[in-house]
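Hi support team,

I submitted a single chain yesterday and got back a structure, but I'm not sure I'm reading the token output correctly. Could someone confirm the output below corresponds to the sequence I sent? I've pasted both exactly as they appear in my results page.

Thanks,
R.
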Amino acid sequence: MDAQQYLTEIKSRLIASPVVETFSIVDERDLSDRGYFRARVRLTNTDFLEIAEYFLIIENQPRVERYRYQWMDRAQETLRKRWDNVPHFPDLPNFPHHVHISAEDNVKTAVPRGITEFLTFLEAEILPEPESVD
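Hi R., thanks for writing in. Yes, this is the structure output for that exact sequence:
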């Protein structure tokens, strides 16, 4: 896989996601062995999401180096959650990966994810669980 293929995978995942209403690409860079992707997303629940990821291609696999996924209300005034790996909280387990929950100072450890994995996680957060048929 090269950077162009990974960028195509990200865009395909955004198109296919059941929680993505629309998206616009803010910046996209394909440098063969590395790349960058940033987009603004309107979710089906009307919330706003901004995603940004810088990645390297190592041994034909993408490795996310820096990321920020910010989920806000429709008006973009209230933070729901923001995941990033800016090295601001060295005492957290799994440093530098963390999530801000509802406020800048409410920070918890987080699992690192690329955009495609993050969308799967977000779908589980937003979509209702299917009712079981017993």
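A quick pointer for reading it: The chain has one domain: 3-126. Let us know if anything else looks off.

Best,
Support desk
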